[in-house]
Structure formats: structure tokens, C-alpha cells
């Protein structure tokens, strides 16, 4: 109510409301609801009122920056004092002795991020130097990684070159880190081309192992989305050169990425056929064992593999695989129902595809090649 009334008031009314509230402002800054009133004063108040509020915050910036509600007021002050750069700098100076504490705090990190959003980086050199000095610690930190991204976003090459260099020294570990991977994703998506290409070069080299990691897989996916065809072709070459059928986890992953790359790249018919033959041979080497302790997991992976295989195989190859499977079923299994549906998959694919659905009717069935 107070916020709305203040926002729609005349200058005289704002002066009256402010005069009534100001004596309680110190306690309102840290109040769950009162902090919104102070923020509204910063946003819609007169210039004189904004300066008065700064005087109220002076000397308390460190404490308020680490407070659940106080940090919001500090952020609003930094944002709304843009016409008073001297006051903005004064707020930053109060933070200089506790930069690392703020960056690694769940509330304080938002204050540091706001500094880079609203203030020229040339005036934030103390913070930048502190980040560079502790880059490894912060890059792996849940809040520190956010601050690094803001520096990369708002600062010029001069301020960021050293940060990029230090990040490259720990690139693989950052990709696999729960928090560090976000920094690498940001560079791939929005970083300058030179740094992006340096990162993509390393990611391509370790594409398989990174893609099997819970967090690094986000980085490899981003590398495909924000790269040119030359990089995608390079990834496909890596997948084929490191192709492995002995390790099922590697195998299923590689099949999925090969499928994806075939969809996004213009590949020759000869290469498509080569991939199909390779996949077909490996497919027929695999088996399902319901007696296995890990049956459910194995069976689900097998279904995924079958689906992927038939998405990229030509119609002739599909029929060849189906014929082999039907013969295997007839020889090895009784009471096993097998259903085949021909469907058109994806509007950009010209030939028919086959999707296989299997229904198990009895227990203890083993399918061998």
C-alpha cells in the first residue's frame, strides 16, 4: 500500500511520506517487508531522498550485503545512484575488505554481480584482481562461478584475458564441475570467437569422456548447438575413431551422438551406408538376458539402442535387421510376441523407418545373437 501510494504521489506528497517513514528506515532495511519500501524510495524518490538514504546505509554496506533482505536494498542503491557515481564508488569501497566473503555468500554474491551490471569495470579493478587471484577457488564455487560469468559478460578484453587464460588451465575439471561447467557453457555461447575456438578444440579432443559425465555433458551439448559444421564434422570423426562396442555405456552414447550429427549435417550417402553397416554388425553382437540381475537397466538400454539404430538406418538396412531378428526369435524363443510398425519418422527424412516394439510374455528368456 505504501509503495503504491508513494509511486503515484506528487513531489509534495512524496516528501511528506518520506519524512514519516525515514526515522524507521534503519530497521526497515532488514525487514522482510519493509525492505521493499526502502527500495521503492530509491526507485521513485527524489534525488535528495536518494542521497539521504545513502547516508543511512553508509558504514553498514558490508553487513547489509550479507543480509537476506539488506542485500536487496544495497543492489537497488547501486542501481538507482547512477547519477551519483561518487556514491556508487563509496559503496564499493566499503566492500573492498570483504570481497571474497561477499562473492562466496548466498546474498553477497548478488551485490557483487550488480556492481558489474551497473558500474564501469574500470572502477571495479579491486574486485577483478581479487577474482583473478582466487580464480580456481571461485570457478568451482556455486556463487563464485556466477560472479565470473558477470565479469566475462560486462568487462572488456583487457580485464578478461587473464581470466580466460586461468580458466583454460583447468578446463576439463571445470567442465566436469557442478558449477564450473556453467562458466564454460557461457563462453561457448557468448564468449569471443578466439576463446570459444580454443575451448572447442579441447572439448572435441575429449568429447566422449566429457559427454559421459553428468555435468560435462551439458558442455558438449552446448558445443554442438553453438558451433559450425566444421566442428560438428570433427566431433563425428572423433566418435568414429574412438568407437567402442565392448563398453555398453560408451557404445550407446556414441550411437546417440552419431544419430544427432547425421541429422544436423549434410553427410554423403556413402558415409551413411558405412555407419549403417557398422551399427548393424555391432547390433547383432548384443544380447538381452532377463535372468541378469540388471535386466531392467539392460533391457531399457537395448530398447533405446534399437530405436536409435532404426532412426538412422535406410529401409533396406531395416528389413535386413528385421529378418535377422525374426530368425533369431524363431530359433531361440517360444511364446514371444513381436510387433513391427512401419512409420514415417521426421519430415526431413525421405525413406520409411521401422520401429520395433517387443512384448515379453514369459520369464527367463534369453536372446542371443
UniProtKB/TrEMBL annotation:
GO terms for biological process: post-transcriptional regulation of gene expression. The keyword Cell wall biogenesis/degradation does not apply. Pfam families: PUF. PROSITE patterns: PUM (PS50302), PUM_HD (PS50303). Coiled coil: none annotated. GO terms for molecular function: mRNA binding. Pumilio repeats lie at residues 20-55, 56-93, 94-129, 130-165, 166-201. This is Pumilio-family RNA binding repeat protein. It comes from Ichthyophthirius multifiliis. Keywords: Repeat. InterPro entries: ARM-like, ARM-type_fold, PUM-HD, Pumilio_RNA-bd_rpt. Residues 1-312 form the PUM-HD domain. SUPFAM superfamilies: ARM repeat (SSF48371). One of its GO terms (cellular component) is cytoplasm.
Amino acid at each position: 500500500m505504501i509503495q503504491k501510494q508513494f509511486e503515484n504521489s506528487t513531489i509534495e506528497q512524496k516528501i511528506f511520506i518520506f519524512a514519516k517513514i525515514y526515522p524507521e528506515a534503519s530497521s526497515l532495511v532488514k525487514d522482510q517487508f519493509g525492505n521493499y519500501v526502502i527500495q521503492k524510495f530509491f526507485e521513485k524518490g527524489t534525488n535528495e531522498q536518494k542521497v539521504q538514504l545513502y547516508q543511512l546505509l553508509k558504514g553498514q554496506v558490508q553487513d547489509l550485503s550479507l543480509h537476506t533482505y539488506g542485500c536487496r536494498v544495497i543492489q537497488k542503491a547501486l542501481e538507482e545512484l547512477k547519477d551519483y557515481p561518487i556514491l556508487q564508488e563509496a559503496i564499493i569501497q566499503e566492500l573492498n575488505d570483504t570481497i571474497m566473503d561477499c562473492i562466496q555468500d548466498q546474498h553477497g554474491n548478488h551485490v557483487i554481480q550488480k556492481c558489474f551490471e551497473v558500474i564501469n569495470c574500470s572502477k571495479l579493478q579491486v574486485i577483478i584482481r581479487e577474482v583473478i587471484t582466487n580464480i580456481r577457488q571461485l570457478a568451482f564455487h556455486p556463487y563464485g562461478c556466477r560472479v565470473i560469468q558477470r565479469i566475462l559478460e560486462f568487462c572488456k578484453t583487457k580485464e578478461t584475458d587473464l581470466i580466460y587464460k586461468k580458466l583454460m588451465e583447468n578446463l576439463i575439471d571445470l567442465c566436469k564441475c557442478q558449477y564450473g561447467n556453467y562458466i564454460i557453457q557461457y563462453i561457448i555461447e557468448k564468449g569471443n570467437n578466439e576463446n570459444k575456438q580454443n575451448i572447442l578444440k579441447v572439448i572435441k579432443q575429449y568429447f566422449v569422456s566429457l559427454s559421459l559425465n553428468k555435468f560435462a555433458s551439458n558442455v558438449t551439448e552446448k558445443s554442438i548447438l553453438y558451433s559450425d559444421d566444421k566442428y560438428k564434422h570433427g566431433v563425428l570423426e572423433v566418435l568414429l575413431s574412438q568407437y567402442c562396442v565392448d563398453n555398453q555405456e560408451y557404445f550407446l552414447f556414441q550411437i546417440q551422438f552419431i544419430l544427432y550429427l547425421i541429422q544436423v549435417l549434410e553427410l554423403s550417402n556413402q558415409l551413411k551406408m558405412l555407419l549403417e553397416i557398422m551399427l548393424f554388425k555391432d547390433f547383432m553382437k548384443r544380447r538381452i538376458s532377463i535372468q541378469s540381475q540388471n535386466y531392467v537397466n539392460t533391457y531399457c538400454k537395448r530398447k533405446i539402442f534399437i530405436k536409435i539404430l532404426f532412426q538412422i538406418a535406410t529401409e533396406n538396412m531395416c528389413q535386413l535387421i528385421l529378418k535377422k531378428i525374426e530368425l533369431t526369435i524363431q530359433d531361440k524363443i517360444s511364446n514371444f510376441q513381436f510387433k513391427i510398425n512401419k512409420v514415417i519418422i521426421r519430415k526431413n527424412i525421405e525413406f520409411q523407418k521401422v520401429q520395433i516394439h517387443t512384448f515379453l510374455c514369459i520369464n527367463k528368456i534369453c536372446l542371443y545373437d
